[in-house]
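Example complex used in Figure S2.
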Amino acid sequence: MIDFIRKIVRNRLAGLGLIVLFSIFVLAILTPLLPLAPPNEIDTPNRFLLPFSDNALLGTDHLGRDLLSRLLWGTQLSLAVGFVAAFIAGFFGSLLGIVAGYMGGRTDSLIMRSVDILMAFPYILLALAIVAALGPGLLNALIAVAVVNIPFFARNVRGVAVTLAQADFIQSARLSGRSNISILVFELLPNVASVIIIAFSTTVGWMILETAGLSFLGLGSQPPQADLGSMLGEARAALITNPHTSIIPGIMIFLIVMGINLLGDGIRDALDPRLAKGQLEKPSPLTRVSDSLRKSPPIAGTANNAVMEINHLSTNFEVGEVVNKAVRDVSFSINSGECLGLVGESGSGKSVTALSLTRLVASPPGVVVSGSVRISDQELINLPYESVRAIRGRRVAYIFQDPLTSLHPLHRIGQQLTEAMSTHSRGANSVFIDRAKHLLGEVRIPNPERVMEAYPHQLSGGMRQRIGIAMALANDPDLIIADEPTTALDVTVQAQILAILNDLRQQRGLSVLFISHDLNVMAQICDRVAVMYAGEIVEMGRTLDILEHPKHPYTVGLLACSPQIGQGRQNLQPIAGMPLAGHESLNACAFANRCSRVQPVCQKQLVEIVDMDSQSVRCLFPVVES
Amino acid sequence: MTKQILEVRNISKAFPISRGWFGFNKQQLRAVRAISLSVHKGQTLGVIGESGCGKTTLARMLVGLQLPDAGEIIINDQNLQRLDPVQRGRAIQYVFQDPISSLNPRMTVGRSLETPLRCLHNLTSAQRKAAIAEIIHAVKLPVDSLARYPHEFSGGQAQRISIARALLAQSPLIVLDEPVSALDVSVQAQIIELLTEIKQEFDLTYIFISHDLAVIEAFCDQVAVMYFGEIVEYGDCSQVLMEPRHPYTRLLASSAPQIGKSLIAESGIGQLPDPLDPPEGCSFAARCPYSTNECIQLQTPRQMTGNSNYVICHHPIANQE
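Predicted assembly (947 residues):
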């Protein structure tokens, strides 16, 4: 709870709202105990006393009643009515919403259509109609305001409940024998509670205003009883001559509603961190480079034949004080016409490495803290945005896991392909269209003309990935980075995509950086493989060497636990333990805690990667076959 | 042969889809068509197929999360449709693909695990504690897990929790729907090892659904190959996968990447037929290199290829022996 308040107060304005509202509440609660004049005692001779007069701190109204006393009693009443109305609306609205969302089908239609009908009436007119039907009076105004706000809660809650009702955990609760009511109360309600609280905190302010509005029109609290609305209403006639009588309740309404709204924003931010200000901020188009790296002298390249050379690259994720080292001191190079595989499990840093190459890691929180990335002798790490942009897509192109997320859903395939080309080179549109068709043919799409006219969602996963490859080829790049390009695909489609990539490599002499978690897939396409673990490359070498004679215990373990087809029923040998978390600093071998060959010395020192036969291995006790 | 624990007789499922203005144009989307299966006690039946083949719909019907349009599911001589939810939960359980989302994010693991004991078995608090302690030990979770929330766990640990919950329901039959697909290979092997251990310890029968041929081969006794809502080949797991008789099974086997063997990719696009307008004859005919006119026009016969092995094909690939 204290933690929650701290979260709210982190938003300064919300903290202000909390203080204002808290003070008003304390005043309202203490009102009966304060030495105030009776609020309804008429004293006509002393009417319209100005504020700070004797015996009347805030002056008196048109009947000579003490304004301070009326203000505090009125505030108490207005707050009570507003909150009670909000509770009623929140309770019934949420109940309707949660039942409609969970039950679905007819129940849902029936409830939500009724709610829609309620919403079809203009808001205040509906409230007026209800009061007109029930007769004026504070209780009836309260009912009217509550009823008018039910749809707001119902719709908000129903929207969340509908998606939650399909969630796996609701289904598993059903399989665990819970009844519908028990699921609604124990499983669903705690998960929609935050939505209800957010809706409540943002509507209670309106409800106080609406109640005041009805009282202002004389339909709410009846004289002589004071609430903020009726105080305003009664002061209306003297607005010009004695403005303080209306300004004082006006300020109070303003403070209450402002306090509630500011606090409501804070509560919303604290409960739903995605909506918090600053989180929606657009990440910078270029990964930040740490100051020390920017100032340090460039690292010289060594490889001659390399399309891309990476030396000592390290990328961190920095959130406040927490530094997560995603990529630690990674070096490799890709030769012309070569396919290098980057293999590792989730969190091993393979994707962050790939994104760091053209500085695509989202910043914040990503920061490149060391290293150099050279593409044909051009250093990328220190380039300004415009130059990096000219390289992305043109010289280094990406293929992602599911092109559905990287293709624009509202543009036709042909349009997107030609746009990819026209960004980097000039020419007539008809030339681009011809080239696009040719590219689609190259990725074995049977009917390029028709596919050019299609939208991404109309194509199957395999077809979309072919488009993804065609897009990557559009500008004839020096290097293609394929990040798990077949992971989302079925095996038969995966085989096709791998065959297409292999053919393109032969025909075009493509250089590819191929990222995958699957050693079996690597074996199909890569010339060399680098195995990553906990942000480091632990073993690198020719694919067959690595797969047939792995030297690092992690590679050995990875191979032993991936099932192979054609081996019949087998027991897999899992690697015990969990990978290192990224924020742990490294002063030992990263794999030591899971390694079966671990020696005391492994826990005591960092391990360098060293050449061994034709491979490089980061291990003090590599596996050597006898 | 051991006792038959599950029998599925001709179950089908189609989902109504509304199209056009106001949804007047109602069509049926075929998910599962006339599937029959049987599983014997203590066995593991693998169900393999690609996305859209209806394997998850089949699984959800087996545990009663979806009702079949036609056909019957018999568990231990009882018709599933006639059981109430509590009896059903005691008869068969389900483990989801995504372990984290199958646990209530606002509930401690301990409370999630209590649910089946409380609702299915009406155990007292002390009995529940004892049962949970035993199972937590069996699935090798740290004892302090009970007080924590699902998001504090890694995928592998969360899958252990889901498995623990299925075990606590004390049903002899568990449907595992892609239980390791969302996990890394090293963790995948840990979970498969765990599943093998608890199968022995608690005398379980599994239905293991996966798209991964290698995992199915390593783990299952029998396999049913699904294509477009139907079982196209069934039989002893290693026999079926090593010597496939159905052209589709062979395509699957040759498409799975293997170290030291180059892939044979299917030519053409390889799309499934339109599920709103399924073909009359064999649904694989359009992709099949052996298809003839009779494949397209006639209903496909079931041909026995071994003791209980069968293939649904006009022209099964000849036995290599």
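The CA atoms of residues 231 and 575 of chain A lie 75 Å apart. DSSP finds 22 helices and 13 strands in chain A.
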